[in-house]
Inverse folding.
């Protein structure tokens, strides 16, 4: 049933997706004009910040975040997320427009398959909010830190060992891990907010955000720079972000998903289709670049 909140929140979510897609196009273009830098080295950001296009992309990304917050204040995550991931389609359309070429039909279909598979997973899993207090202890914070460092290190090691065709995927996955954990930290921090903006500086999550946020942006730029097209990297980030944030919610924030036999089968199938669609996107991108 369509409520007033859903009717008001839907255009906000779609606007956030469009702004995020446009921001990603600008960041992809800027990253390919900057000198290539090793993954994780902040010198890339120093080169990018000198480009007006990249600075405008940051403004667009901030606007997208504001619209997303507005949408989430009106609708639950389960409705907002499928709308936000349409940013991938916006990216493909806008990138083709800036390059003055027709959008590649196969890439469009594979991107839509990504969106449908992730939406199906979220609709089947139906995650529910928890108490958000699982990151209040030092042991849980250390465990999350070890998990993040280990996951990002594995992704960076894979990027070094892979050829240029596949290198954007582990870099984008590392960025998605940073973004997903960032979302989890924001959710956890919200439970400690007492109305005073200064109160957040008394919790370690704030300082974690200050590190993970910029590092995730740096890794996403590395991913854009590593490949001929940004669609596979962006698809990986868009897929990894909600899945990692969901994992943080399940393991640390007492959130729940549906775990009945039928639900589990549906979730596994949706994730398998999702992985296959990202794989197809990565295979197709170099061919499009040569056409």
């Amino acid at each position: 049933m369509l409520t007033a909140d859903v009717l008001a929140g839907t255009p906000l979510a779609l606007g956030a997706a469009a702004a995020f897609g446009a921001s990603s196009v600008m960041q992809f273009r800027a990253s390919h004009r900057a000198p290539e830098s090793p993954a994780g080295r902040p010198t890339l950001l120093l080169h990018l910040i000198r480009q007006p296009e990249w600075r405008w992309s940051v403004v667009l990304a901030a606007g997208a975040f504001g619209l997303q917050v507005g949408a989430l204040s009106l609708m639950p995550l389960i409705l907002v997320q499928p709308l936000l991931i349409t940013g991938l389609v916006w990216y493909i359309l806008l990138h083709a427009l800036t390059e003055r070429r027709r959008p590649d039909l196969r890439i469009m279909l594979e991107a839509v398959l990504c969106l449908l598979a992730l939406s199906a997973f979220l609709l089947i899993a139906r995650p529910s909010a928890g108490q958000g207090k699982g990151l209040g202890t030092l042991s849980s914070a250390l465990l999350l830190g070890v998990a993040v460092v280990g996951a990002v290190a594995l992704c960076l090691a894979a990027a070094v060992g892979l050829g240029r065709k596949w290198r954007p995927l582990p870099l984008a996955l590392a960025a998605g891990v940073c973004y997903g954990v960032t979302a989890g930290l924001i959710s956890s921090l919200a439970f400690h907010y007492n109305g005073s903006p200064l109160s957040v500086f008394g919790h370690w999550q704030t300082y974690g955000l200050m590190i993970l946020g910029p590092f995730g942006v740096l890794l996403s730029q590395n991913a854009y720079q590593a490949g001929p097209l940004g669609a596979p990297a962006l698809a990986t980030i868009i897929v990894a972000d909600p899945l990692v944030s969901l994992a943080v919610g399940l393991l640390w924030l007492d959130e729940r998903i549906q775990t009945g036999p039928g639900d589990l089968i549906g979730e596994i199938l949706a994730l398998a289709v999702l992985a296959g669609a990202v794989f197809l996107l990565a295979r197709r991108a170099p061919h499009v670049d040569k056409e």
About this structure: DSSP finds eleven helices and no strands in the chain. The chain has one domain: 4-290.
